[in-house]
Every structure is written in C-alpha cells, then in structure tokens.
Design brief:
- The structure holds 2 protein chains of 2 kinds.
- Chain A is an alpha/beta fold.
- Chain A has 2 domains: about 5-225, P-loop containing nucleotide triphosphate hydrolases (Rossmann fold); about 225-295, Alpha-Beta Plaits (2-Layer Sandwich), CATH 3.30.70.
- Helix content of chain A is about 35%, strand content about 30%.
- In chain A, a hairpin with a 2-residue loop joins strand 12 and strand 13 (about 260-270).
- The mean pLDDT of chain A is about 85.
- By secondary structure, chain B is an all-alpha fold.
- Chain B has helices at about 1-25, 25-30, 35-45, 55-70, 75-80, 85-95, 100-130, 140-165, 165-185, 195-200, 205-220, 225-245.
- Classes of the chains: A alpha/beta, B mainly alpha.
- The interface of A and B includes residues 48, 73 and 83 of A.
- Chain B: Its main location: membrane.
Chain lengths: ~300, ~250
C-alpha cells in the first residue's frame, strides 16, 4: 500500500552540522505517528521540511506516491499544520482568525462559515468565537491554533508539541480532539515531550536522535526492545561519596549511569532487588530523595536508546 | 484560470488582513499621522518668519517633512512584514497554498495604501490648519510623486527585511540610513551650504531628487522634473521587487 506521506533518505545540513541524517519514514493513512526525540534531535527540522517552509539537501518527500515538489499547491491544500509557536492574530476574534486562515485554502461563502463554526465547536471555542485571543488563557489559544489548522479539513495533520505549557483541561480537550480526529479517519503526525501522551494516543512511534531514526514501531514493539532489563531511577541527596562499582554487587544490577545526584540503574527484569538497592543506600548512609521504577515504560525504552530522558 | 482567480482572491484576503493589522495598530497610526504633524508644527513654529512672506516655514516643512514621512514608510513596511508578533502568523500563511511572493507583495501594497491614506489625511490637515501651499492646480502631481515615493519606500523596507532576515536589525539600519539620506537631502537644514563636497554628496540621496522635484512643481509650476521623478521611483520599486524575489527565503521565517 502506498504510504500517505513518505520521507526518503532526507538530509539537511546547516553548514557542517547534520540536522537530519538520511532520515526515512512513512506515515500511513489513518494512523497517529508520534515523533519522539530529545531536544535538538531534528524533530522540528523534519516538520518544517514536511510543511515545505524549509528546504533539504538530499532525499525525496512524497505525498501519496508523488514527489511533493511536483504537486506543491495540491499537497499544501491537504496539509494542516499546528505549529509549536502560536500562529494566530491576537487582536482578531477567534472566528476572524479561523475564517482568515481557512479562506487562504479557497473556502468561500456558506462552506467557509460552516467549516469555521465546525472547527470552533470541535476545539470547544464556539461560545467564545467573538472574543479576541488576547483575552484567552494559554490553553484556549492553543486550541484556537488547532482550529486554524483543521477548518479546511486536511487529510494529514502535523502537530508540533501542541500541548506545551497548557492547563490540564485544555490538554485533555486537545488529546480528546486528536482521538476524535483519528476515529474520523484523519492521519496525524504528532511530536511531543510528554511520554504519557504518546502512550495515550499513538498507533506507531518513531524515535529520532541526532537527525537519525533510532527506533520505530508500536508501543508494544518498542517495549520489547528492553529485553530482560528494567530501569530504576534514583535521586540521591548527595551522590559524591557513592562508589558506582559497589552497586554491581547488588543482585541483578547490569549497568549504572550517574549524572550528578541522579542514578539510572539497569537491572535484570526477573530479579526482585528493590529492597536490596534501598538497603544498599541506607547501609552506605546515602539519603534517597526519589526512587522510581521505569519498568516496561516508553520512558525506559527512550532512556535506553538515547541515554537521555525525553525532557532532558 | 480557476486557480488564478482563487490565487488572486487569496491575495485579496491576505492584503486585507495586512492592511487591517496596520490600521488597528496604535503605534503605526501615531507614527504615520500624529508624529509627522507634530514635527511640522514644532519646526514650523520654531522657524516662523525665517522664510519670508511668500513661502512660510509651514509651507517648507509641510513638504519636506511629508517627504521625510514617506522615507520612513520603509520602517512601517518592515514592521508589518517581520514584526515578532506577526511572524508566526505570517508563517502559517506560508503553509497555505498561496504563492510565496504574495506574502511580501501584500505587505508592500498594504503599507503603501495605509501610509498614502495617512499622507492624504495629513495634507488636508496641513492645508486647513497651517494653510500649506501644495502647488494649487499642480498639487495632484505633488501627491502622485509622493505616493510613488511611499511605494518605493515600502518596497525598500521589505527588501531590507529580506536582506537582513530580521525586522529589528533591518529597522536599526534603516533608522540610520533614512536619517543620513534625509540630512543629505536637506530636509532639516540646507545641507548644500556646508560646501561643494556636501553638495555633490547630496545628489546620492534620492530624497534630494524628490524634494527638488516637488519644490519645482509647487513654486515654479515646472512639470519637467515630474516624469523623470516618477519614472525613477517606478524603476527603483521594480528593482526592489526583484531584489525581494531573489532574497526572500521562507526558511528565514522559521
């Protein structure tokens, strides 16, 4: 089956620096592909390239099998972008904002009015359609940012961290809307820093680091990558006295990473050693501030693959 | 054909939005109306009696400061193009299927219409309040030339943004450039009286050509400089538009 959107061996150079290195992936119709990566991994670069505002040095991008450059206007009509920065006019009403951006996609008359109302209802701002965004909360602005991207009913929606810094109510509203869009058959490419969002909405996940794909698959497939390991994260009050080598004497400990007062410990999955680890710290007079097991979570997979937490 | 019509409608929508952004910005409104009016009032008042009976100080500054206002339209244009508050929204416009060039052409046209309307309003006030003389029946030539200078200046401001990739940097440089051009063009005092070299240098400033041309129309009733003046401004605008086409890159908005 021809993928809806395909990035094929795409590279992007900034001077000598490779922002994207031979990046290849496909987005299939009806899926929510979550794009994960630490800061500077190349997520935003990839999204800017897909939204056609950024050029690339090598490779090919296709929409339904045809090179994007050969059908630029058609491709842009089928694309909806929810950018990370709020791309709305603060002094224009919510309705005015959505109407303006939708009209750039050729919508006119009754159809325009219907789609604008539909988009505002969808994000829960219809009752505030006559108000200006400068009177809105951060979350409401984010929802309006989304309405501006969906009013022309795009076939594929690219969302770049749409829930950054918003209240739980708006965040839930946005996630609920995404699920609804998926149920209606929309295809979504979604980037986020919040692993719990990925767990909630993704049908497939792509992890990139330093401009390259380092893993892809469903949640379950990625968790399989952990093999027989589970990760434990321990925050100590003062880890300066700690000898990491001694930790290997605890049953099951395979790997220890120390970042200031934070320890990340990989242990064998079947061995119950939490009490032994706790006892180790107590016996060495080291105070534990937090102790978290990352067993079989996407966070643990991410940590194992990139050596960093998603929000590092 | 249908695609052309749709594209043209898209341009119309974009232009309307850009024009409204200028019209609803208090800073832009004050910069283009009250500020030049106050400047004319203050300079005209301070130098009253120094220009004889036929030409008053208000007549002189009424014209020279309208030229100064036209020169500073470049900063209004760069503001409407890449101001931080509008940058992300402009970015969203670039995601849409309209032509990329519409984005900067729309800013130039919106700035031109907005500032020309402001100039018209100012001119009426200057005639009513200070009795400024704009050449009687030849006034239309004065305002056509001034309007074209607005267009040239708007294109200059947008091209400067394309060149320097930032409104802040473009405006910092434009501020200096405009003031130097205004001084060399003799807008505030007689630059030519500084000597032969100063006089020669003044011809490098388009302001000098515009002011000389306008004074000839107003006080000599001579229209011989009108055609070269407007032709020069139109050619200059065309070259600046080409400059925008060559230097504008969507990735600079990212």
């Amino acid at each position: 089956m021809t993928p809806m959107l395909e990035m094929n061996h795409v590279s992007k150079l900034y001077g000598e620096h490779h922002a994207l290195k031979d990046l290849s992936f496909q987005v299939h119709e009806g899926e929510i592909l979550c794009f994960l990566g630490p800061n500077g991994a190349g997520k935003s670069t990839a999204i800017h390239i897909l939204s056609t505002v950024l050029s690339y040095n090598e490779g090919r991008i296709s929409f339904r099998g045809t090179r994007v450059e050969e059908q630029l206007s058609h491709y842009k009509r089928k694309l909806g972008i929810v950018p990370q920065d709020l791309a709305i006019y603060e002094d224009v009403t919510a309705e005015g904002n959505v109407t303006f951006f939708a009209s750039l996609y050729g919508l006119r008359g009754d159809m325009l009015r219907e789609r604008v109302a539909e988009a505002l209802q969808f994000v829960g701002l219809y009752d505030r359609r006559g108000d200006k965004p400068r009177t809105f909360s951060g979350g409401m602005k984010r929802r309006l940012n989304m309405a501006c991207a969906i009013a022309h009913r795009p076939e594929i929606l690219i969302m770049d961290e749409p829930t950054v810094g918003i209240d739980p109510h708006s965040r839930n509203h946005i996630l609920e809307s995404i699920r609804e869009l998926r149920d209606q058959g929309s295809t979504i490419l979604y980037t986020t820093h919040y692993m719990e969002e990925v767990e909630e909405i993704s049908t497939r996940i792509l992890i990139i680091d330093q401009g390259e794909v380092i893993a892809s698959g469903t949640k379950e497939e990625l968790k399989e990558l952990l093999g027989d390991e589970k990760w434990i994260e321990v925050e100590l009050e003062d880890a300066s006295e700690l000898s990491e080598e001694r930790l290997f004497r605890v049953d099951g400990v395979k790997q220890v990473e120390k970042h200031d007062n934070l320890l990340r410990i990989a242990t064998v999955k079947g061995i119950e050693n939490t009490d032994k680890l706790m006892a180790f710290f107590v016996n060495h007079g080291i105070k534990v501030k937090h102790f978290t097991s990352l067993a079989a979570s996407l966070e643990a997979v991410f940590l194992q693959l990139t050596g960093r937490k998603l929000r590092d | 054909m249908a695609q052309f019509v749709q594209s043209t409608r898209g341009f119309g929508m974009l232009w309307k939005r850009d024009f409204m952004n200028l019209l609803t910005s208090p800073v832009m409104l004050l910069t283009n109306t009250l500020f030049p009016l106050l400047l004319i009032l203050i300079l005209g008042y301070l130098t009253r009696g120094q220009y004889g009976d036929t030409v008053t100080s208000y007549d002189y500054y009424g014209i020279t400061l309208l030229v100064f206002h036209a020169l500073n339209v470049s900063m209004t244009a760069s503001n409407s193009f890449m101001e931080r508050k509008l940058r992300a929204s402009n970015m969203r416009v670039l995601y849409s299927p309209i032509r990329t060039s519409w984005v900067y052409l729309s800013k130039i046209l919106a700035t031109f219409v907005f500032t020309t309307l402001c100039m018209g309003m100012l001119a009426v006030l200057l005639v009513v309040l200070f009795g400024v003389y704009f050449g009687g029946k030849d006034a239309v030539y004065v305002f056509v030339a001034l309007a074209l200078f607005h267009l040239f200046s708007a294109a200059f401001g947008v091209w400067f943004c394309c060149l320097w990739k930032s409104e802040e940097l473009a405006n910092k440089i434009l501020n200096v450039v405009n003031n130097v051009l205004a001084l060399m063009g003799g807008l505030f005092f007689s630059w030519d009286s500084l000597g032969r070299t100063a006089e020669t240098l003044s011809y490098f400033s388009p302001v000098k050509w515009v002011v000389d041309g306008l004074f000839r129309i107003v006080y000599d009733g001579s229209l011989w400089s009108f055609i070269p003046l407007v032709s020069g401004l139109l050619i200059g605008t065309a070259l600046l538009l080409l400059g925008c086409k060559w230097t504008f890159r969507t990735e600079e908005m990212v």
